Amino acid sequence: xxxxxxxxxxxxxxxxxxxxxxxxxxxxxxxxxxxxxxxxxxxxxxxxxxxxxxxxxxxxxxxxxxxxxxxxxxxxxxxxxxxxxxxxxxxxxxxxxxxxxxxxxxxxxxxxxxxxxxxxxxxxxxxxxxxxxxxxxxxxxxxxxxxxxxxxxxxxxxxxxxxxxxxxxxxxxxxxxxxxxxxxxxxxxxxxxxxxxxxxxxxxxxxxxxx
Length: 211
Known about the structure:
This protein is mostly helical. It has one domain (2-207): Hypothetical protein af1432 (Orthogonal Bundle), CATH 1.10.3210.50. The chain contains ten helices and no strands. It has helices at 2-17, 26-40, 47-56, 71-79, 83-94, 109-120, 124-137, 155-160, 165-171, 183-207. The longest helix is centred in the C-terminal third of the chain and has 25 residues, at 183-207. The termini are far apart. Residues 25-123 form the HD domain. This is HD domain-containing protein. InterPro entries: HD/PDEase_dom, HD_domain.
């Protein structure tokens, strides 16, 4: 029964993610799922909750959500879950987003796993690719070495300021390694973090620190 619900959910959400830009498409969900299952191998958690939360965590992302839509609730309604399962999944999803440093802390092991799995996909080589894919979709500069990264901002300021893609590294991506909550997540983040530092050093060399 649980496997059937996961498959039904997967079929529904794939159609949604296929409409998003490459930074949050179906491949993103596949990678986050892979990360989550890797972490699950070392943690005692409810895999059913984790997998459904991974599948659903971006369907109602404010960056893509239309004002009249509530796709997350619509799909959860159709899955006919127990009230405690639904509440737990929504609690997990609610703690995933970074929100400019204003995100909710993960309060369960399932939330920690999904949060780490999603953030791992925001760093390293794939994190670099996604940052520039999203910046390109929004028409943002690749870099601006004179732009100052913000250390404090509201969620609205974080989402709406047209900062360059490289500035996003300093406002979010380089902060994520130290925010991992599971031991596996921490270990996986180390190499990815170092790769981003190497990339930024090489990029600055090639652009000579110019605007």
